[in-house]
Amino acid sequence: MISTLLLVFIDQLKIRCELIQLYENFNSLKIEKTIGWSCLNNQYPIVYNCKYGMDLIKVDMSCNEIQHKITEILPHFQVQIYVDIYFYGDLNAEDKIVILIDEQQWQNTYLPTLTQPLGKSHQCISYDQNRNYQIRKTLVIDLSHNIENLNLVLRSTLSQNFETKSYLFRNLQIFYNPCSKTCKTCNGGQTNQCTSCYQNIPLTSGTCSSCKWNINLTFLLIPKGCVVQCPDEYSYDKDKVCQKNSKLITYTASQLIKNKESYQISGNLESSVILLRLTLKVELSGKNQVVLQINGKKIATISQFNIQAKLKYQYLQTMKQQIIEFDAPINSGQFIIKIDGSKKIFAFNVLPKVKVQYFVCALNCQLCKDNENCEICLQNYFLYFGECLTTCPDPTIVSNKSCIYPLQLNYDESLEVRILVKEFYDFSTTKERVNELFTLQETNNSIYNFQKGEQIYFSYLDKKRIFGGPFVWVNAKFKFDLKLENIRENIVIYFDVILGDEKMNRTVFHYKINSQDEKTLILNNKKDLKLDQNWSDDYCVDVISVRETIEYQDNNNQLIILFYCDNSFNNANTTFCGIQNLIVAIQPPKSGESGLSEEEEQIDDQDLESTFEISICGDEKVSEDEECDDGNLVPFDGCFNCQYQCQYLCQFCIKGECLFMFEEQSFKQTESNISQGLDEKLLQVCHIYCEICIQGICLQCQTGYYMNIISNICESKCGDIIISGQEQCDDGNLDNYDGCSDCQFNEYENCPKLQTCAVCHYDKCLKCIDGYTLENNKCISICGDALINKLEEQCDNPNEKGCVNCQIETGYVCSGISYSVCKTCGDYCTVCQTINQFNLICKDCLIGYYPVLDRCLECDKNCISCKGQSNLCTSCYRSDCELCESVPGFYTDFERKRCFAQCGDGILVIDEEECDDGNIEDADGCDSQCKIEFAQKQLNDLLVWHFNGNSSYEFSLMNSEYKLELNCQDPLIAIDGMDKNDFFFNISVINNICRVEFVFFKSVFKSNTIHVELSLSFQENRLLYQNNVRVIQFDIQPNEQIILSADEKMQANQIANVQQSFGFLFVLIIPVSIVTNLYEYLWGVLEILSWVNNFYFLNVHYPFNVEIFLLNQDWSAFVALPTYQGLNQPDCSYYFAAPLKFQNKGIDPLFFNNIQIPFIFIITIFLIYELNFILLSLLNALISVENNKIQINHKHFSIFCLQAKRKTQQTQVQQLQQDRRRTHS
Prior knowledge:
Blueprint: H1 2-16, E1 20-25, E2 38-39, E3 47-48, E4 56-59, E5 65-70, E6 76-89, E7 97-101, E8 104-108, H2 112-115, E9 134-144, E10 150-156, E11 165-178, E12 183-186, E13 194-197, E14 203-204, E15 207-208, E16 219-221, E17 225-227, E18 234-236, E19 242-244, E20 248-250, E21 257-259, E22 262-268, E23 273-283, E24 289-294, E25 297-303, E26 307-309, E27 313-318, E28 321-329, E29 334-340, E30 350-360, E31 365-368, E32 374-377, E33 382-384, E34 387-389, E35 397-399, E36 402-404, E37 418-423, H3 431-437, E38 438-443, E39 458-461, E40 464-468, E41 476-483, E42 490-501, E43 508-513, E44 519-522, E45 540-550, E46 558-566, E47 576-587, H4 598-611, E48 638-640, E49 643-645, E50 650-654, E51 657-661, H5 664-667, H6 671-683, E52 690-694, E53 697-701, E54 705-708, E55 713-716, E56 740-741, E57 744-745, E58 757-761, E59 764-768, E60 773-775, E61 778-780, E62 803-804, E63 807-808, E64 812-815, E65 821-824, E66 829-834, E67 840-845, E68 849-852, E69 855-858, E70 863-866, E71 873-876, E72 890-893, E73 898-901, H7 936-940, ...
Antiparallel strand pairs: 1-11, 2-5, 3-4, 4-11, 5-10, 6-9, 6-11, 7-8, 7-10, 12-13, 14-15, 16-17, 18-19, 20-30, 21-22, 22-29, 23-28, 23-30, 24-25, 24-29, 25-26, 27-28, 31-32, 33-34, 35-36, 37-47, 38-41, 39-40, 40-47, 41-46, 42-45, 42-47, 43-44, 43-46, 48-49, 50-51, 52-53, 54-55, 56-57, 58-59, ...
Helix pairs in contact: 8-9, 8-10
Organism: Paramecium octaurelia
Keywords: Disulfide bond, Membrane, Repeat, Signal, Transmembrane, Transmembrane helix
Pfam family, one: DUF4215
């Protein structure tokens, strides 16, 4: 019984899971971050804070447009958006709030100062009390949407500051309705509502098949498409759709270690491991094999074309390099994986790669209860329904390291609770779910109810959506209705009632469960909950927990709860009722109280355990996704990989039993003989009315008979409108007075029965036999009356194809006494023949299909045509009958029946394409026909290089229509006459120019040609050749450079010092030679030394010491005259460099630079002469001036002295006179 209940529970979960939460924000009381949202001015939105209650996001004049973009949404066809909008201040009809979702617009206007329904805010700061009137509305927007991005915009038309008027919002959630898992896009959630499929999968009647029928790309990763294998820590279902699985963990140390002649991986896993998943990538050739072992047990033998395995495995890739996935049950945390390396059979072309993943029953689990649930968690974790959590979710409580619901108290905690309904504990309860569970019965004082919107029966508290709540549920009655079927356990109901009011003892709440008495709750306690800005400091709020139990005898397969918020007084605007943490569950009674026998309880537990059992092929247990399980993985034994499979050449296979083997002679027999032989074989061992029988077991009955699963006998069924067995008639009803009762004819009043009348009364026909219509007490046959007259009509259905003028067309069979249903062979059948009244056989099919009974099945992709089986090709696209796609770059042309190479796919096909750059554009090096557009000589003409000084060279390409560019990475450089140790280089890229700077460790001469190889590519596309690289070579004649060793440098310094001393001595000899009249000899010596200096410029490689001597030998000038060196520089357009020896001597090839020294010497002589003349004139002038100054100063001094003396004498006389006066006085 528990398994039945569990199916009901799972069915309810499916309903709830149609909408999946995509995004939620601004649901906490305090909003701290607005990351991801932006205003038009690229600023973050402004948060409006309240002292108590909920923070809000402003949409006012300072930030009148706020937007947020969500990307990479999984395939879906609908989104649903919830948002609470708040309105404040002097809003008028021109002040609007607009919500745009991908440019689709919703617009509303509200006038708080006129309606004033919610009163004033008590907690938000800065509210002008004259404008402190509010409205809050919950918007629920349903939108058809199927693109992967969603852009949400909130925009207001406000033009005044916040204190005057404002819009605000919070409590945002976005849900989406997903497509069926194999759809890329869709217009509904059913499997037949796809509008496009992934990659090359065809769309058939709105349905997309899975990738599992592809070759190599057999897994579907949403939304990427078909892939070789699922990513790490992704599991997959029976359709091979990848799904993120937190219980699948990658073993990080998956590295092979060579051990003698084998490779192995070993390690320790978590104690909660239940299954080991091993992915092996191996490349084999010839008859080479490898043997795989896990924990000392041989698991599989793998060759290039075959696998013999004892475990369930999957081929992820079957080309030259095989990728195989094995699933191995494991009951210990330790494992050793070994790839046997026997010399006789072991040979790898490439070292194999192994990836180890493992399943656990639960994360952070110490001991597993079964394959899906944990029994004991690790330390600091709590057990919650088989999972291990760091904290217990609301409203559970901690008990013995487990999270239990309050409804489990006073019960045996070892008995597992099965939850039927769990709502209003977070944001997952949608509007549809609320309307599904609750029905509004009656409402009073409607002015206070549902002020947040029509049919909005919910509101928000901190991080939670509750039923009812402030400004929603004030005075109304709701009915909670839940269907219960075949439940024989106790029903436990738990919920929290939230009551709020400005005063105590006047808010009343009633509830009544099924036939139990009504119970009443009153607000008579106050808890310190500040959850709404409209609540004053002394606002009264209480949360009352309710727990009720219903015995299984009293549930009547239905749970009905009446909830009544009874606040009928006036001015009840701030009063409310709410419900949170609503849970309905079943808890099995203690042993002996259930009313079930021990055998029934044991069976139910086994059913429940099998529901959560992991499918393991080879364990001799048939799971939900398995057709069979014979305990091995041997092919062609009737069951392979837990799917039915017959022998290789079996022509007719039913559930692993081959009825006919393919033989050349038997295949030439006619289909009628085959059918006759089949019937004879079946009738020998089965009931007479059995159509298909295998080893005495009937698999299918004839038309009109039904299988008795107990006796395995085909029996007729009265009332199916088919006359069979001992039935005289079958009119398909239970009317005993219409001529046919219990499928036997009835006669009344012993009337003579006419040939066409079934029931007569006093010579009047009351009912005709089948196929006739009663008209004026007569039975007549009318073609088109949907009744078959067996004497004249074969069928009767003028609107059905296959029945024309009540006669069956060739290639059709029609059945049914009334309103015939006709059918023909399946699609793609070209020749359809009738076997008997009910069966057809297809004799021939379109090319690419082969006939099986009345259908045409598709040949394998590598076959053009086939016969008998899909893999028995009679003609192929390739001579070896392999898939075209098995060779990279080849595709199948199903119309022309050949393999072809697709130009522009970026894959080079040898002998078919010269190049393939991933497009079909011309003038990019590879034309639209994948032909190379230019030769090597054309490339060589575009090469440009030049010397940049300091052993630096720059390489580039001339501009061309092909937009070529050099790849400066990883150049190949070689120098004639030098080893790699004789030089070092560094390469850099500047404005698409490759610059190579050399450091030489030995002397470089022009004979040491430098060869630089670089690869060539295009700025937009990559040119592909056989080696995927186009190489060009620069050949450079280097500038000569003398590189000295340490000894040579010391010797060069010594030579330079000697030459310097000699030069100084020579300067001292010059005046001596003039005095002694020997300067002519000295001049001759100087002339000889100058000629010796010219020997340096000869094209001769002198010995090192001679080279240094000649280099430092320079007697052309003893004085360095200034010259202008701004001409003929490397950055000049006319620059030409002198040979190295001339550069070393400082000789410039420019004529102007050479004549500067004599020209400046002459100018210098004239300048010195002029300076000397000016200086002499200046000195003469100064002498004259000084002479004049001496005469004038002498005369002035004499007069001055006379005047000074006279003044001194007068001062002395005056002083004597004053002294005398003082004495007399």
